[in-house]
Design brief:
Pathway: Protein modification; lipoprotein biosynthesis (diacylglyceryl transfer). It is a single chain. Helices cover 61% and strands 3% of the residues. The chain is mainly alpha-helical. It has a domain of 71 residues. A hairpin with a 2-residue loop joins strand 1 and strand 2.
């Protein structure tokens, strides 16, 4: 059975070195470059959106380009710290309590999107208060470009051969180096396509064609709700973290549980935006 299943894997996993550039003892990994690329490209697109006054309520952008430049440091720290702390709390707490030094051993565990989301949200709240920027509009700016970072991050997961999917016999299945001999769903690519590329296109259409940024909170709600739906869908194909496994039956995962409050929050944000705008 194992040999037959392996034969069905007709797509070879590309053996890409996780280290993009190595100079002596210094190694720059694709994962780190993905974070940099996502944040910088998101910053570029956000600046272009700020410059388009027709997108904003009363033709007035909620902040200046200089504000956005300063915000880069805040959101980067929020994403990285929140992502790491979230991973520990949601997926690796028992191991870290037993061995606290594990908290900084990132090679023993990665980053949690849900933790990064909370960290970025905290950064946005603090930054908006400090600079008197309308909070929901700042949320919208970040939400409209956040899928860019998700896209690059999931590609980096794929290059690292981590967070692979469940065993399957679909023609595009792959045998991952760390996933055993059986072919699996390349679920990282599913997430890159759904949570990244497709979500970015949908949000840009909402912002530009439907002028959703004029109703602060609409783009934010759409991002949160649609990400949650995409993540729940992909979780049916993604292998759960080994230290947690399935929470119920052979299908319910931690990713699904963490996404459900996001779905509710996203729908609430959309309704709140409609009520606030009177439309």
């Amino acid at each position: 059975m194992q040999s037959a299943a392996a034969l069905l894997s007709i797509v070879s996993f590309p053996a890409i070195d996780p280290v993009a550039i190595a100079i002596g003892p210094i190694a720059i990994r694709w994962y780190g470059l993905a974070y940099v690329a996502g944040i910088m490209l998101g910053w570029f697109v956000a600046r272009r959106m700020l410059a388009n006054t027709a997108l904003w309520p009363n033709g007035t952008p909620p902040c200046t380009a200089a504000h956005l430049d300063d915000f880069l440091v805040w959101v980067a720290l929020g994403i990285v710290l929140g992502g790491r702390i979230g991973y520990i709390l949601f997926y690796d707490l028992e191991a870290v309590l037993a061995e606290p030094v594990r908290a900084i051993q990132i090679w023993n565990g990665g980053m949690s999107f849900h933790g990064g989301f909370l960290g970025a949200t905290t950064a946005m709240i603090l930054f908006s208060r400090r600079h008197a920027i309308p909070l929901w509009s700042l949320f919208d700016i970040v939400a409209s470009v956040a899928p860019i970072g998700i896209f690059f991050g999931r590609l980096a997961n794929f290059i690292n051969g981590e967070l692979w999917g469940r065993i399957t016999d679909v023609p595009w299945a792959m045998v991952f180096p760390t996933g055993g001999p059986m072919p699996r769903h390349p679920s990282q690519l599913y997430e890159a396509a759904l949570e990244g590329l497709l979500l970015f296109i949908v949000l840009q259409i909402l912002a530009r064609a439907f002028k959703a940024l004029r109703r602060p909170g609409t783009v934010t709600g759409a991002f949160v709700a649609l990400y949650a739906l995409a993540r729940i869908l992909v979780e049916f194909f993604r292998e759960p973290d080994v230290q947690i496994g399935y929470l119920a039956g052979n299908w319910l995962t931690m990713g699904m549980v963490l996404s459900l409050p996001m779905l509710v929050a996203g729908l609430w944000a959309i309704l709140r935006a409609r009520r606030a705008s009177g439309r």
